[in-house]
Amino acid sequence: MRAAVLTEFGAPLVAADVRLDDPAPDEVLVRVVASGVCHSDLNVAVGNLPASPRPQILGHEVAGVVERVGSGVTAFAPGDHVVTCPSGFCGTCSWCMSGLLHLCTDKNRARPAGQPPRATLDGVPVAQFAGLGGFAEEVLVHERAVAAIPAEMPLDRASVLGCAVVTGMGSVLNTAQVRPGQTVAVIGCGGVGLNVLQAARFSGAATIVAVDRAAAKLDRAKLFGATHLVDAGSVDAVEAVREITGGGVDHAFEVVGRPETIEQAFAMLRIRGAATVVGVAKPADRVSIGALDLLSEKTLRGAQMGSSRFRLDVDLFARMYLDGRILLDELISRHIALDDVNDALQSMDDFTGARSVITVDA
Ligand code: APR
Ligand code: ZN
Ligand code: ZN
Question: Is residue 320 part of a domain?
């Protein structure tokens, strides 16, 4: 099957014919119909995570149709429509047993050491980003990295559920638990940030300030629930948010993944406010906060995958979309072919749209 393979950091992904093994008893083979291109894919591609193995198939926002299941799989059958999950769960570690499946200590759900690789290229093992490897025509994944979706859910719209929607909406609904009447600021209004915005609206936040440095991103932010817009390219974001909200916000969400925007998120809080960092920074990045600000009972915390229980949240958000209660159509700015993935990655930082989604020909 065809896949876009990372062989060298900073170089274009290479189109290659990758061989997938037969499903092990606990694995599912999925025909990829749609695959979103996320900023985390770019992070790996450019070498921001130097420990990432190569060759590797990137991509982790997959929607598709189950083709085959391993002998021990009972939750899925061929023909089922599914979404893949970048944080699968083992079901037995202490985090899983506590109901915090997104913190599972074995979340990538790779094959145990000593077993043949799932994917090979000319006999050489090929790693799968997040245990998935979605820039491909097929993915062979652990059954607990898969969530079912209703058959009536359009598969291109479903793909973004797998990361952007679960991460963005989950960080508001599960991690931060925004309440009606609160004030919210969102720094970074890309694919994930837009979902933070729409979840803040859904939560009943009274004031929702969108902060971005690209005008086109701010325009779209309005559609997703922003009540106020701040162009970080022309004004001081912290001052602007403090002025709009009369002293700072209850919740600031950082959805960029840079130290300076994390510091801004903390600096724009009101007393007892909480900054939730959704963006993924580089391993060596450090942030600095005013130590005395902690006396005002402010919180700086991380969020991973929207603290979600993936199978529940994917089903919930799919049904909310089908009921017309959340926006997904407007998240997908362009459909591209698998061969165009390099263009999508290279232009991501200047892209004025929301998400690019690869649609793989049937
Ligand atoms: N201030 C404000 N906005 C910024 C700044 C800045 N200094 N720098 C970048 N941005 C904006 C961009 O203009 C863009 O709209 O941040 C947004 C990032 O959006 P995307 O590139 O679409 O990234 P996305 O896929 O949403 O991921 C955002 O969340 O899950 C993580 O790894 C992911 O760290 C990444 C973050
Ligand atoms: Zn992602
Ligand atoms: Zn676990």
Answer: no
